[in-house]
Amino acid sequence: MKQQHKEASSQVIGEFALQALLYEAALYPKPGLVDPKSCGAHADMNYFTFIDSSTALAPFLIEYVHLGLIHNGTPLDLFEKVRALGQQAEIAMLNQTEGVNTHKGANFSFALLLSAVGKIMSEQQLKIPFSEQNTTAVFNYVKQMTQGLLSKDFASLAQKKQLSYGEKLYLEHGIVGIRGEAELGYPVLKTIALPFLRQHRKSEQRILFLLLLLHLMATTEDSNVINRGGIVAWRNVKKQASDLLQTFSIGSLEKDLEDALIRFDQQLIKENLSPGGSADLLALSFFFGRLEGLF
User: Fold this and answer.
1) Cβ(220)–Cβ(188) below 8 Å
2) Distance separating alpha carbons of residues 278 and 255, to the nearest angstrom
């Protein structure tokens, strides 16, 4: 792949990722989450914080793709490169948001997946749009990049004095969070989110993504919810999302779905619960939808 083509590909794919972050922030109404009309269960951020955060990450999204496109070493070598760049991106994000963590999880996943997209494109001489098989190759490459990640990152937790909430959840409940999802090659995206988007690609986009969010909330091991409310609260959120999916589908009236989600939002605000893990997966779903030319 020629240098000029690599730079153009990095730019286009990085823009898909930025668009995904902005579309996720703009989707309304999202239970417990920040959107243009609600701060969800967050007192320290609003819709504009997410715009600021997304723009801070924008150049790094392009660079993640570029790292993959020019990479010649092993998958684990690429992981080390993107992790180092991802830490720089996180600092830029926190500087822009005055220390508020808006996109830490999304940045981690986009770093892995965008670099894997670049690597697979370069290796297989691919062009956009991707096929389902191309996307599967990306997930498989991420599995190779993150092999042993959980055991390495969580090796000596018992000796650590200060634990992150992800580390606490792993020790107390065996919750593996986004690291576990990455090490398995993002099965939620592969088996739930993307098949749903492919099946309903011609549907009205807003309804499609609101329903996808409910599917993610009903199935995802969301460490954000567990950290705030515990295992019981997380199971309740999953059940409520699942119950709403029994009532609403692609053909439902938009106003009825919107009203139900606003009520769900008000409840999660009261309970101080935010399904941030599902929101990150929603943004990643949008990204792969754009990459595959679904909409």
Assistant:
1) yes
2) 23
Per-residue pLDDT tens over the stretch 11-25 = 999 999 999 999 999
Give the closest residue to 158 by CA, choosing from 143, 170, 175. 170
Could you give the C-alpha distances from 9 to 80, 142, 207, in angstroms and in order? 22, 19, 30
CA atoms of 218 and 27, how far apart (whole Å): 18
- Bridge partners, 35 (sequence order): 38
Residue whose tokens read 């963590």: 101
Output the pTM of the full model. Answer: 0.96
Token pair in block for residue 294: 């679904």
The residue whose two tokens read 């092999």 is 147
pLDDT above 90 covers a percentage of the chain that reads: 86
Residues 210-220 pLDDT 10s: 999 999 999 99
Alpha helices of the chain — where are they, by DSSP H?
Answer: 3-26, 47-69, 75-96, 104-124, 132-145, 149-153, 165-173, 177-183, 187-188, 194-199, 205-219, 223-247, 254-270, 276-291
What number of CA atoms fall less than 13 Å from residue 148's CA on the CB side? 6
